[in-house]
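Two quick folds needed for the group meeting slides. Do the first one here.
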Amino acid sequence: MSINNKKESSSCDINAKSCSCSKEENFEIDLKSHWNDAYSKSETKKLGWYETFPEPSLQLIKKCNFNKEASLLNVGVGATTLIDELINIGYKNIIANDLSLTALEIIKNRVGDNKNKVKWIVDDLTKSKILINNEPVDLWHDRAVLHFFNEETEQDAYFKLLNKLVKPEGFVIIAAFNLNGATKCSGLPVYRYDEKMLIEKMGNSFELIESFDFTYQMPSGDLREYIYTLFKRKFLMNKL
């Protein structure tokens, strides 16, 4: 997938010590190449979104009271350690999705032989060709993916896919930059959210169980403001 964006040399993440911003005013970026480059050219633990331990996500997953057979879909995983932790807990139906094959290979190498306990899917959430045919899941987990979709058409495609894949009484965790958060990440513009905006996007088929703001400390020491939300799908699904 490619998009056209305008970028200026002064438009990096607020307070960031380093970023991948371009000095050109206009450019076309292929997102798959962008993320493959991000993961291949930088040490994983130094990436601005890397979590040593994904505590907020695990906190919300625990509240869902899943059994170990639950199907847990983590979209836009990057090189997250959440996959490692879900394997360690003993979940048997983990699905890891990202646009970047390079990112998925980093996790595979890190978890070693346990990689066979995970279903790995390279797919674009806004133009899905694989996930769209996946069986419904008990959990849709997204940390720091949704906010990269700035166009309404991208957002609509994202939530249409989410609605198709989440089971009745299934759960959705979305963590995105909140309204006080940075306006760019990895040199790309982001679309920030608050609780009300996410409730509206999720629609009447879902009820909000919990939401909280969370300040994440980047490996550089800089801070990023997130909103974390946990939704539950109502038993009776609306037709799409």
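Then this one, please, same format:
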Amino acid sequence: MRLSKKNGIALALVLMLALSMIIAFLVPRRFGLPSQERDNAAVEIRVARYLYHTGIIMPVRTPEVDWSQTFPCLRGKQSFEIGWGDRDFYMSGSITVGLAWKALFQSQASVLNVSGFDTAITDEFLSTEPFAQKKIRLSAVNYKRMATWIRASFALQNGAPIFLREGFWGASSAFYEANTAQTGAYSIVNNCNVWNSNALDAANLPVPMWSGVPYPLLWMLPE
């Protein structure tokens, strides 16, 4: 059966879109990145994948950065996870069609979540039981670059991140207002996974051209 001209155009558009998605998922954003140091000065982090969400897990204290000086909820903690998302959806703690639709297409604001853990990052480390983790070692210089980018993602008041409320883990976690000038507005094309890829890109790690879903990002990151 021959396709009509209208159907042929529609099929061509679908194929072009599919090809564009494949390229975005599989082609790195930048080539020729500097290698990460593999010595004792390197900082170990994790990228955790949940069902559709990713987060970055880092030590609270390194010689370069002490996050407990910025976030009171991390005082006395060894490691923490950070993530970015739509304010209403992320802070609700529930998944509904209405909240998801509003987040993807009508987001009003975005927030960052910081959650501290009592244990250090080790081979056996599990935060809140993610489905998968990628262990990555960053040079001290590149870790500091990523930390600088992440800090710029927070809206500030009197030089400090704007605290909104405690997170889902009580006093060891908190939500903060995001700086949309750095993060952009949350949407279907600029979601939590894209925020993570931007942070990792600041650390000179290879990330896909677009990381709207977790799998290409974890696949491309070196372990």
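Slide caption for protein two: The beta strands are 43-49, 54-59, 79-86, 110-117, 132-138, 156-157, 160-161, 163-167, 170-177.
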